[in-house]
Amino acid sequence: MDFIAIDFETANYAADSACAVGLVKCVDGEIVATKEFLVRPPTLFFSPFCVRIHGLTYRDVRDQPTFDVLWHRELRDFAGDLPLLAHNAPFDRAVLRETLARYALSPTPAPWGCSLQMSRKILGRDLAYRQPNFKLNSVAAHFGITFRHHNALEDSLAVARIAAEFEKMVGEEVFRRFFR
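Given the sequence above, the corresponding structure tokens read:
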């Protein structure tokens, strides 16, 4: 199945404060292209909590383009109408929705899938799943996937690789049903 794995990092608790985005295009279960961008959020307030998570500060993004510029220049064409997949998709979906709204951009009609929900449904029944939870790093460890957690591109790559494993486990028909 073709889809875009996506991950956002935010500057603070506001859903429209995207400061990084990573996208991975998958075609027929294979990674074919990646994009990674630092984004200047509408305000340059970075909460200490978020900085501890991803390590980005206003100094990293102050000279970067705003999301609307990136959307018109690259993101919209890269993603097209492909389904979007994220780990804990409600978070990333809210960031995309609120950031698009902030700049009066049309929301994307693409369906969304959530690899966290997939993990709970697919691995939750697997007696071989011995991880303590269904967080991205735990699910990735189950499949032997290593990555630098809380880096937008690295997280997107991990989601894409996990999704490939799930699609192998359940087949494309069942995998496709996870997208709404």
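The mean pLDDT is 96. Try to locate this feature in the token string yourself.
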